[in-house]
Amino acid sequence: MITEQVLDGKTTAFKKWCYNETLETGQDTKALEKSTDEKQALEEERRQLEKERRQFERLQKEFARRIEIEDRRLEQEKKLFDMKVKILEEELQKLATEKEHLEKQKAFYSRVNQYERESAHSYNDCFDAGSNIVKGDMFFSGVGSEKSLKKRYKDLIKIYHPDNLDGDKDTIQEINSQYHKLCAVYK
Q1: Half-sphere exposure at residue 29, Cβ-oriented, CA atoms within 13 angstroms
Q2: Global pTM?
């Protein structure tokens, strides 16, 4: 009996021990399953991170390629802009040269017009107002003596006598009037 009690006590202790070991094994199994689940979750997370890394690298390469393309485009635009600026500067220089040339021409033609006005004014002073008759003092300009006055008078009469093709009665009257005035001066 004692042996049976000892045996029963040992059996009970063994059963308790087996029960505890079964519980621990169950817990270890659960822990292992949990560990396996965690390991699988970590593995899945690692795969996801690897996938994101590859995607990031692909995006990074794409971004670098776009930056390179944009840099080339900007360089081309800069070259084009520089060419346009150069063309504009050349055209501006041409315009400045043409403007200077036009200013010189304007000054020249202004002087020509002024000279023509002065010439026309002095030419018009030689004619009577409203007619084509030359004033007599023009015919005798440069005459310094009575002898040269008579010679000039004879030449003018030959030219402007009314019987000639170029003759003019009014001009002859003007010449005669001026001649008589100058004769009075030289006597």
Answers
A1: 6
A2: 0.36
